[in-house]
Amino acid sequence: MTSTEDRDPLIALGIAVVLAALAGISAMLGAHLLIGALRLTAGILAGAAAGAGMLAVPRLARHRIGRFLALALALTLALALTVPAVIAARPAGLGPHTIARLNPLSAGDELRTPLAPDAPAFIHRADGTVELIDDLGVRRVATAPGATIAVTADGQRLVEVTGETTTLHLLDPTLSSPDGTPPTTSVPGIPLAFDGTWLVMRKCEEAGCYLHGYDLSDGSEKPVWTTAAADLEDARGPDPAETLLPARPETPPDLLDALRTTGLLPTIPLHFDPAQGWLQLDPSTGFPLGEVLTRPEETCRIAVTTAPPGTGDALTGPAHPWQVLTVCTEQDGALIARAHADGTVLWESKASPGGDWEVLIGSGRVLATGTEQGTDVVGELVVSEQAAAWQAPGGEGVQQAATFRARVGIDPVRMVVANDIGQLVAYDTVEGTDLWSAALTSPDAPVRGRLAAGTAVVLDPLERTRPLTPRGAQRLRVIDADSGEVSVQAQVGRGITELRPLPDGRALVTDGTQLVLIGP
Asked: What is the pTM of this model?
């Protein structure tokens, strides 16, 4: 007859074999079905099988120390087979790509991404603090609460307009005072333009309103030239570029509308004369340049924009890096666009179909959205220096492409879409040429993103290749909208809510309750 002490090791061995078999089955099913619970169960069962195997050794089973060692082996192996695997499968998150963590945007806070090659993006907080976002990271400048804030196109100055006084903060960090305060220049009036040297201001006095030109290169605080301007009741400002606006404005924009909306002080001074219409001024003399841009009786939008992409050469750049675009509306709602440089027409479009349109002027092009007369279907039209006729975005090149399933965004330069074959594709908005493409997880993968400031930020589901990969994990990519170069690729959880593209391959992402600046 077999004693109990002789049977215990055999029982322990049998249990070890059964546990090992169950561990193997759980591991195979977990890997095949991508079920994380089975994968964890396999690790626990494997640890238990090892512990039971130790108890199959008679000498170990008879002693308390042996049973303790068996239990320790079971726990150690179970932890080794589960914890590292869980950690390895967790999304890495934004940590490796985080440049700075900021306070979340609250009521009254505004993000501005001025579309100028050298201008920094910035957040204007309700308390007056300005957080500049550039190659140096995040810098803070104190301004007066309620002031209108912008930056100059060369990125060298922060513009603060308070009442009838304009203060320019020089942003060169090497010139700041020991406490980090930048040197400032205050000028009476409100700014119209700054080209890097000449600052054009408008100031009203009891005797009337005047335009003044200041040469900031010599540090003079007195205007070099002065000319009369329209009275307050006739004063109006240009329209903000890169902003969708009704083609027929209900009321003319005021002098600071474009500055508030775009966060950019333009390089070209525009002046509305109630007798002549819109004029472009020479910033060094105040004299009108070339022809009248639009007549006062015309219903038009007018904005200063950068030149269209692809113009000029790599060494000298565009012949006219900054242009003035006008979009005038006929009685039937038809649109006619014109581009000007130094008061001379560079190109003029044909009339668009009549209808009810909103227009976006940017990068030397015009994108119109609305309904054509006789229809109730919302559509889009675009016009540029390349074609006089208005056309659907992308023209025939995009019409022949794969079916679009989702659109990340569109602007006058490019459109980023997800097609039905599982690709993220960017097309030139005018020509329809394929700029770049990137793979999605699958043709039916839900895609969420945003296009702005020459950058696309895209979220799509993270493909689950391991059972412990969390469900709902996402892949976040920050992509240069022109070249398709990916500056940031991160695995994130479900906490990402808002996406805000910034220039130069960066973005602001709301992760839970935090606002995170990410970039290369």
From this structure: 0.84
